[in-house]
Specification:
The protein is mainly α. The chain has a single domain, classed as Arp2/3 complex 21 kDa subunit ARPC3 (Orthogonal Bundle). The chain contains 6 helices and no strands.
Length: 183
């Protein structure tokens, strides 16, 4: 029992660190109306288990916090709360739809981060840029965020899932069983 908890904490720490590290080189591209967060490909890890959702959310909070502190994130504290909540929601939805497969691929799981971030971050951007809600501005912002998210999830995330499934590493890393190795 204790080993399982330690394993989950370690895996989530690694997922958060990986999300953060994958975001750092692209800080100028991951905030604003046009976003390209390759780290969002990791939102498909919940296809294997619900446990990585915590690490994804923590990684997103840290990136949004760094962006707000550095001034790179025009949404500031709003994005720390709502942008990170979109990643949390996307992770849970990806997990919920993990078994719905089209030609063996979890396409609906990949679509959930696109929709969640497109809507939530699109709304954030609309309120910050327009000072209130404007449908046409929202639709443009949501589409731009969703496009970047779609690239991360469909172009990077699905091949990552396929590779983790093919090698068995996804199950091994994220299963609730703790492997004991002989010394």
């Amino acid at each position: 029992m204790r080993n399982n908890t330690v394993k989950k904490i370690a895996i989530n720490a690694m997922v958060a660190a990986l999300y953060f590290v994958l975001s750092l080189p692209f800080m100028s591209l991951i905030f604003g109306p046009v976003q390209m967060r390759i780290a969002e490909a990791l939102t498909l890890l919940p296809v294997f288990a619900v446990s990585p959702v915590a690490g994804l959310t923590l990684g997103c909070v840290l990136v949004n916090l760094l962006g707000a502190v550095s001034g790179a994130n025009i949404l500031g504290p709003l994005d720390i709360v709502f942008g990170s909540a979109a990643t949390l929601l996307a992770g849970f939805l990806s997990y919920a739809l993990r078994d719905v497969r089209i030609k063996g691929l979890p396409l609906l799981s990949a679509l959930m981060p696109v929709l969640a971030n497109g809507i939530v971050v699109g709304l954030e951007l609309t309120f910050v840029i327009s000072g209130g809600f404007n449908l046409s501005v929202f639709l443009v912002n949501a589409a731009q965020v969703a496009l970047g998210e779609a690239i991360a999830c469909f172009v990077l995330g699905l091949p990552m899932v396929r590779a983790l499934e093919k090698t068995g590493l996804g199950k091994k890393l994220f299963s609730d069983r703790v492997e004991h190795f002989a010394s």
